[in-house]
């Protein structure tokens, strides 16, 4: 590798492709696009190689994405572009015209027409919170506009609209439970009309008597409903939350499973002609699930369901076949008047006539569906060009700084997928004064790194790095690659003259115009580069980077060649070239997982790795100095816990403090700083070259150290005195300022220490964080709350501020959506744990879903494409969320519209709102969660000398308004979270009304309070039931396994009850995290010795036993289908280690871990990629992925029996199991063993 001499960058006009549109394109053997040298091609601009053109203002059927159809008497309502559309006839051989019903900013979902076909109910986000609305479809009804029906006091809002009652007087919808419970989606019914003489019930919301209900259809006194909702985007899913159809009939006390014999998904039950139940399922006659299709089975009614205690559906007919499109059916609707069916697959709607369905059921063969040719006139308002104001914290993802040949300091910014140049100047001083010579009066300007505004986001820039005063290295997607999605490096002029150098070497052949190493790592391509890892050598010859496949690579910028460094190291962190560019330092994980700093010697033909620090400590965040490597290390291992005695088993704890160390690498420690400055311009626009005869040798003395020898070099490191141990964020740079200084970040302040005097200096306050501070050998720059600031590394000169005022970028959404689709596809390929993609042809997956992108007219519709594509992996932990969705209102408006809560379950009556339950959490921990008590609780109101409410009391007014005159009591609580409200109350034990003043809580706080109430109630029930059975028990519920909050919950529940005979670890509804090993470590402790003094022992508060706080009783783990991820990990660990018995239902099935770091340009996830698999000592898979943990004892909480009394069959079984185990243990001896009598050493009488 040639690293001597000047950079091999040529900027002559003959080597620069002109910037223009179009050009004659061809393809190479790999399918990548190629352009002739004479053609006009600019990879940073829009060109004909893109799969589609920006849309014209009005287009026909090919430009629409239709979802969620509802049909009634030949009429059709569906969702497209986030709005509702209507057609008065869907059954037509000619194009079906549709008109837009809604135009609000909030997107509409889940439309359902009423039985009379005169109105449609739907969910929308008009208030910033998804709520239930209704609008008329007749001319008179349309004039009445849209009516809001719900004001939910939870953090989620309405999650679905299920249908109308047969009378059309109420609407059934789903939302999170308003009862005391963990996160649980349930069905509710809201009354919208009443008959004459009936008590006022309009607006009253009553629960459907079921738990875990995500869909429901009623017929002749029976309800056919769906349990669960699979949260991951996963095809062929057979885990614990696989949707399943159940039934219950009025007057019965239990519900009946209908599709439980099929391990896959069955959902969306619909009644067809009163004789059959139609539903969606991935059922096949093979071993595993297939694509989602419509199936039919004879409708089982009450007399058929209950005498047989749950007759399973025995005759199943596949009504549709999607093998031709390979697209699953996502939703369908039955017209109860005509019995026709309209379903959605991909982005299209299809029609199944009633006669075709009947023929299919009769013959047992799939029916032929007809594609509905929708004719929609639209302005595609959400595809118009957008000017996006730049947010420093959200949009600027990387920065570098360059000093131009004219003396101007410029910041090179990566801004939301685009490369920009922004000038830095002294605040308040005219920028023109910063130029010299003939340019002294030229005003500063901010500009895109390369022209081509019509790019519009199709190409994504990941990083821009300075090469020299005139050129930059850009990592961006390569539109010449087969899908326009692969990454490539470009050499770009950054001095404002424009130009993309696709020829990286003046003598390169035509084939070397671009890096042709694009593609996956498996194919030898770049794969997906970790953009924040790119480092360019000071002389501009080399760039170093690593990728998602753990490869460290070197790019010869002049030649355009990439070489992968041969090393066992795979987990890299910082990369930094030495000042002379002859060495590359990098931090990485050692084999024992400690962080280590190593150096790559680039002076050798085959670069060798030398370890600069030992693997006995964590050494990271390093900077190159004057022949010395400075770094932070935690090598002083000092715990702030001195012994294991005391409650909650104190364990060694390291405070995270690090110290500054130096390692001299140059013999005689000659000053090497400034080598990078020994260069000059080789003519206008030319590359830097060293001044002849002035470049100093940069030769480090590593001794005989090598990766296979002792750490002799590492042991030469020494402590830098004067900088006390602290929790430093990291080192930023070395500066020659004063006697030589090291810049570091501590408590969000950029500071330096003088290496000669040990004095410290403040450079900048309020930095965003270590990731937002960086340096070259010339400048240091940081982002704070006021902007981006640049300082000379020498420490002299004024602080410059980068011009980010009134900064906006142009984006053409459809072009950007195309680019985002390619990004998502590539990153799933390169981040997914299995390089073989579970056997899928990932190229075919791209081709399969690309046509749908051209149909997208709304950001959320792009998510539909992401979900379809990502679900092909058949892996859990695949989530699609985030991104720049259409904003309804700003933060202040959203706060005003947010519904407050009184922390109670209430129902509307003729008098007002009846208080049914007042929620309260664990009273022994009143400061742990906020709030712990309802605003109506006596514990809350007694603090202001008021009397709390009780169940049975009625709220009749709020802020002096009669609640009966309001659409809902929660209507008056909008914007009241955290504010006081006056309530008029009729107490149960009183005859007159009185007033109380309470402070409402937010909807998110209400969710927390409901959950806390259930948790406290369940704990009390467990202890009461155990006491009734004659033993004692501890109870710990973990909502998640994430961070300190989960650790605190375990400590609060476990250590106080460590001496009980039984322990219930309840991880039902656990969302996962990563602390399973810590919990398993505690639960594996074993007692082997006991202490006793003359008056105390283990029975009366004595020292107990060793190992301290080892649990000696029996353990039962409670799980359910919503036990997920690390909640499953701790459960499986307890099973594998033989620590306890697992009771409940099969869990979610997420066994591959993820990092969620494959984000898109707008901050969203187009499918989080599971990245780390798990396996056992035997090498076998742990068995969790796409299956879940099967309990030792399977017990289900019947969704009907569990409501409303909250009968907890799983908890009852846990008590039963522990009772038996405690009885067995007691037969073996007392729970607290007694020591043998102390030996009597007194001499017997007469013995001397």
Structural summary, described in words:
With 1248 residues, the chain is of the alpha+beta class. Helix content is 12%, strand content 29%. It is built from 14 helices and 76 strands. Strand 35 and strand 36 (500-501) form a beta hairpin. Helix 6 (842-853) packs antiparallel against helix 7, helix 10 (1003-1028) runs parallel beside helix 14 (1209-1227) and helix 12 (1076-1083) packs parallel to helix 13 (1126-1136). The longest helix has 26 residues, at 1003-1028. The radius of gyration is 34 Å and the shape is globular.
Work out the strand percent.
25-35%
Main beta-sheet annotation: 8 strands, antiparallel
The count of β-strands is 76
Structural class: alpha+beta
InterPro entries: ClpP/crotonase-like_dom_sf (IPR029045), PDZ (IPR001478), PDZ_6 (IPR041489), PDZ_sf (IPR036034), Tail-specific_protease (IPR005151), Tricorn_C1 (IPR028204), Tricorn_protease (IPR012393), WD40/YVTN_repeat-like_dom_sf (IPR015943)
Domain Tail specific protease: 991-1196
Region (Disordered): 1-36
Family: Belongs to the peptidase S41B family.
């Amino acid at each position: 590798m040639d690293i001597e001499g000047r950079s091999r960058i040529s900027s002559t006009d003959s080597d620069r492709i002109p910037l223009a549109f179009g050009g004659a394109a061809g393809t190479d053997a790999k399918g990548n696009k190629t352009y002739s040298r004479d053609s006009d091609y600019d990879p940073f601009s829009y060109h004909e190689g893109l799969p589609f053109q920006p849309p014209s203002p009005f287009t026909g059927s090919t430009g629409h994405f239709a979802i969620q159809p509802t049909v009634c008497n030949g009429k059709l309502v569906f969702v497209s572009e986030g709005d509702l559309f209507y057609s008065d006839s869907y059954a037509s051989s000619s194009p079906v015209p549709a008109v837009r019903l809604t135009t609000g900013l909030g997107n509409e979902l889940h439309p359902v027409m009423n039985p009379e076909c005169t109105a449609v109910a739907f969910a929308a986000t008009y208030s910033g919170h998804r709520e239930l609305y209704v609008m008329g479809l007749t001319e008179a009804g349309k004039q009445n506009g849209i009516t809001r029906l719900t004001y939910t006091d939870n953090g989620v809002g309405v999650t679905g609209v299920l249908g109308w009652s047969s009378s059309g007087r109420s609407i059934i919808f789903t939302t999170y439970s308003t009862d005391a419970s963990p996160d649980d989606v349930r069905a509710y019914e809201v009354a919208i009309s009443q008959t004459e003489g009936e008590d006022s019930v309009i607006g009253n919301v009553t629960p459907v008597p079921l738990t875990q209900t995500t869909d429901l259809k009623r017929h002749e006194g029976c309800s056919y409903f769906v349990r669960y909702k699979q949260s991951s985007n996963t095809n062929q899913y057979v885990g614990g939350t696989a949707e399943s159809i159940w039934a219950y009939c009025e007057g019965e006390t239990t519900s009946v499973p209908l599709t439980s014999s099929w391990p896959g998904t069955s959902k969306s039950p619909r009644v067809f002609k009163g004789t059959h139940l139609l539903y969606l399922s991935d059922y096949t006659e093979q071993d595993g699930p297939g694509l989602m299709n419509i199936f039919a089975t004879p409708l089982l009614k009450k007399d058929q369901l209950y005498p047989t205690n749950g007759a399973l559906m025995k005759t199943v007919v596949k009504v549709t076949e999607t093998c031709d499109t390979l697209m699953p059916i996502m939703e369908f609707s039955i017209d109860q008047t005509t019995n026709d069916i309209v379903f959605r697959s991909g982005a299209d709607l299809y029609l199944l006539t009633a006669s075709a369905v009947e023929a299919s059921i009769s013959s047992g063969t799939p029916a032929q569906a007809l594609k509905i040719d929708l004719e929609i006139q639209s302005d595609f308002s959400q595809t118009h060009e957008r000017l996006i104001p730049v947010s420093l914290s959200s949009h600027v993802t990387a920065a570098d700084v360059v000093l131009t040949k004219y003396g101007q300091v410029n910041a090179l910014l990566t801004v939301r997928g685009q490369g920009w140049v922004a000038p830095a100047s002294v605040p308040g001083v005219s920028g023109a004064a910063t130029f010299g010579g003939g340019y002294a009066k030229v005003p500063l300007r901010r500009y895109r790194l390369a022209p081509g505004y019509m790019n519009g986001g199709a190409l994504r820039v990941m990083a821009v790095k300075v090469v020299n005063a005139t050129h930059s290295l850009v990592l961006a997607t390569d539109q010449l690659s087969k899908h326009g999605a692969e990454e490539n490096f470009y050499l770009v002029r950054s001095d404002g003259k424009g130009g993309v150098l696709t020829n990286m070497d003046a003598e390169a052949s035509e084939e070397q115009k671009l890096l042709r190493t694009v593609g996956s790592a498996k194919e030898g391509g770049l794969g997906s580069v970790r953009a924040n890892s790119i480092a360019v050598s000071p002389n501009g010859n080399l760039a170093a980077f690593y990728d998602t496949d753990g490869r460290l690579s070197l790019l010869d910028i002049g030649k355009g060649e990439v070489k992968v460094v041969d090393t066992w190291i795979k987990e890299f962190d910082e990369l930094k070239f030495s000042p002379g560019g002859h060495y590359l330092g990098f931090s990485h994980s050692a084999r024992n997982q400690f962080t280590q700093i190593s150096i790559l010697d680039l002076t050798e033909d085959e670069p060798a790795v030398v370890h600069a620090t030992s693997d006995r400590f964590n050494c990271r965040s390093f900077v190159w100095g004057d022949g010395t490597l400075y770094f932070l290390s935690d090598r002083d291992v000092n715990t702030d816990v001195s012994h294991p005695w005391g409650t909650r088993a104190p364990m060694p704890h390291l405070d995270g403090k690090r110290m500054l160390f130096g390692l001299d690498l140059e013999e005689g420690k000659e000053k090497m700083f400034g080598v990078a400055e020994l260069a000059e311009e080789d003519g206008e626009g030319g590359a830097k070259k060293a001044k002849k005869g002035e470049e100093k040798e940069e030769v480090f003395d590593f001794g005989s150290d090598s990766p296979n020898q002792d750490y002799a070099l590492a042991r030469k490191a020494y402590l830098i005195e004067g900088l006390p141990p602290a929790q430093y964020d990291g080192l930023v740079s070395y500066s020659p300022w004063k006697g030589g200084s090291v810049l570091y970040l501590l408590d969000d302040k950029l500071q330096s220490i003088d290496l000669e005097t040990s004095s410290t200096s403040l450079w900048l306050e309020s930095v965003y964080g270590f990731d937002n501070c960086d340096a070259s050998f010339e400048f240091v720059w940081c982002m704070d709350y006021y902007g981006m600031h640049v300082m000379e590394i020498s420490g002299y000169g004024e602080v410059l501020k980068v011009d980010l005022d009134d900064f906006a970028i142009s984006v053409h959404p459809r072009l950007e959506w195309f680019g985002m689709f390619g990004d998502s596809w590539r990153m799933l390929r390169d981040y997914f744990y299995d390089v073989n993609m579970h056997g899928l042809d990932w190229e075919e997956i791209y081709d399969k879903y690309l046509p749908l992108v051209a149909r997208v007219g709304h950001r959320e519709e792009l998510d539909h494409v992401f979900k379809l594509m990502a679900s092909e992996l058949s892996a859990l932990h695949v989530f699609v969320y985030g991104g720049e969705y259409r904003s309804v209102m700003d933060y202040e408006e959203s706060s005003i519209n947010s519904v407050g809560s009184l922390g109670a379950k209430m129902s509307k009556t003729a008098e007002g709102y009846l208080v049914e339950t007042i929620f309260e959490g664990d009273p022994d921990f009143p400061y742990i969660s906020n709030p712990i008590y309802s605003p109506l609780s006596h514990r809350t109101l007694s603090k202001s000398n008021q009397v709390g409410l009780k169940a049975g009391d009625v709220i009749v007014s709020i802020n002096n308004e009669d609640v009966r005159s309001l659409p809902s009591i929660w209507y008056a609580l909008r914007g009241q979270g955290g504010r006081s409200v006056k309530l008029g109350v009729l107490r149960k034990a009183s005859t007159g009304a009185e007033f109380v003043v309470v402070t409402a809580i937010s909807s998110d706080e209400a969710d927390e309070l409901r959950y806390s109430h259930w948790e406290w109630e369940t704990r009390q029930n467990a202890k009461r039931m155990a006491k009734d059975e004659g033993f004692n028990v501890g109870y710990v519920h973990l909502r998640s396994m994430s961070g300190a909050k989960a650790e605190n919950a375990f400590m609060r529940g476990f250590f106080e009850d460590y001496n009980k005979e039984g322990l219930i670890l309840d991880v039902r509804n656990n969302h996962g995290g990563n602390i399973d090993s810590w919990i398993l470590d505690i639960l594996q402790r074993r007692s082997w010795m006991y202490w006793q003094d003359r008056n105390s022992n283990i029975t009366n508060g004595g020292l107990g036993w060793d190992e301290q706080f080892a649990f000696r009783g029996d353990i039962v783990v409670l799980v359910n289908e919503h036990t997920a991820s690390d909640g499953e990990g701790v459960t499986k660990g307890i099973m594998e280690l033989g620590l306890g018995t697992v009771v409940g239902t099969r869990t979610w099935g997420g066994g591959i871990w993820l990092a969620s770091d494959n984000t898109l340009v707008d901050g969203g996830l187009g499918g989080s990629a599971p990245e780390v698999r798990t396996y056992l000592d035997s090498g076998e898979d742990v068995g969790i992925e796409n299956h879940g943990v099967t309990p030792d004892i399977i017990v289900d909480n019947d969704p009907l029996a569990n409501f409303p009394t909250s009968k907890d069959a799983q908890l009852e079984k846990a008590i039963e199991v522990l009772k038996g185990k405690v009885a067995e243990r007691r037969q073996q001896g007392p729970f607290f063993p007694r020591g043998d009598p102390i030996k009597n050493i007194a001499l017997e009488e007469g013995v001397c």
